């Protein structure tokens, strides 16, 4: 499973941050790693330099082997919370999609 990170110009994407997110996402989605070929993680600060509630956005697009891509988005106060929320949403979506495949 390959994980690619993309940030907007308002987010400082450091190598340390990418390693942390890479590890947490990989661990959270390890159950589905045989089905996922690539994850694209898009991080953005929607208000830029201004302060605001839920202005950090994480969108994760999962490329699944033999299936249509699956995308989820989460907004939160911090990037860490946004990534965690998007990862949780992606786990739920993967469970639904892959569960339907098993039942047919």
TrEMBL record:
Q: Which domain of life is it from?
A: Bacteria
Write down the InterPro entries for this protein, in alphabetical order: RHF-like, RHF/RaiA
Matching Pfam families: Ribosomal_S30AE (PF02482)
The identity of this protein, by name, is HPF/RaiA family ribosome-associated protein
